[in-house]
Amino acid sequence: MLITFYGVRGSTPTPGPTTVKYGGNTSCVHLELDNGQDIVLDAGTGMRLLGRKLLTKHSPINIILSHGHWDHIQGYPFFAPIFQPDRQIDVFTSGESGKKLLCSLFDQMDGNNFPIKSEDLPSHNTCIYKGAESVLYEKGIKIVKKPLNHPGGGTAYKIEEDGITCAYVTDNELDPPYKLQTTYDEWVKYLHGVDVLIHDAQYDENDMPHKHGWGHSLISQVRQLAIDAEVGALVMFHHDPDRSDGEIDEIQIENEAHFKGKRAPAKSFCAAEGMQIKLSRRIAGGDTLIEIGKVD
Ligand SMILES: [Zn+2]
Ligand SMILES: [Zn+2]
């Protein structure tokens, strides 16, 4: 499994001199499975560059959406494969709001907010909001869902191939003041032993109590979750728009000090555009080899 980050920023795109290192594009992560399936997690502005890469392939594309907030859908009109004649693009989402969410993805291409209407696209766009797991399973993609704690709702996904697992959990508030969809203990159980946990880590203590209830987690809470769930690698994701490269560098340094001597996670990273994580199964011992690189 190869994971490539195309957009790692939360809430709104943040181009500029203080975000060059980690990037300013909003949520979009590409998973390439060993069986050849392409999975795109969320359709934030990072999706534009990924689209250029996928133009060279002809296989179907599987887009899985966490929820419908702007920073998770705005890349779609600029995703080049949607303009490829007959290219098959399957969009998956979940839950009660699934249909509405998919509508927001396509409704933004209404001729007013975007010059081209979604119904005029030459590609084949299929929307699957009921029974996503079984449709994906038939394609050789195994997912397990969990409801997010987030205003308006949303879904976390755990993707597994040949025993290798990656969990995508954004936007999620581990300790919200509103009604919980998933408790902390349920998160620990759901995420236990995953090879890579990609988790919302938008806020620090300085953001509180003002932003309590906005739907995102504290960095300190995410660190604890990674320890409690004994994940292989933690990737902090959905960086706050006001977080500069220097500040994220400091979080990375603090991570290394925090996890030193702990059994898990073995590795931790602050997500950056272009970062790649390759996961492969070691034959002897059976544990997962986690290699970090950067896109060419
Ligand atoms: Zn978001
Ligand atoms: Zn959101």
Walk me through this protein's architecture.
The chain is an alpha/beta fold and 296 residues long. Helix content is 20%, strand content 26%. The chain has helices at residues 47-54, 98-107, 132-138, 184-191, 219-228, 245-259; strands at 2-7, 28-32, 38-41, 61-64, 88-92, 124-128, 142-147, 155-161, 164-169, 196-200, 233-237, 267-270, 275-281, 288-294. The strands form 2 sheets. The chain has an 8-stranded mixed β-sheet. Strands 7-8-9-10-11-12 form a 6-stranded mixed β-sheet. A hairpin with a 7-residue loop joins strand 7 and strand 8 (155-161). Bound molecules: zinc ion (2 copies).
Offer a few descriptive terms:
296 residues, 8-stranded mixed sheet, 6-stranded mixed sheet, 6 helices, binds zinc ion
Please, what is the average pLDDT? 93
Structural class: alpha/beta
Topology pattern, helix = H, strand = E: EEEHEEHEHEEEHEHEHEEE
Total DSSP helices = 6
Heteromolecules bound? zinc ion
Overall 3D geometry? globular
CA-to-CA gap between the ends?
17 Å
Strand percentage lies at 25-35%
Using only CA atoms, what is the Rg? 18 Å
Task: Walk across the major sheet and give the strand order.
Answer: 6-5-4-3-2-1-13-14
Low-confidence stretches: none
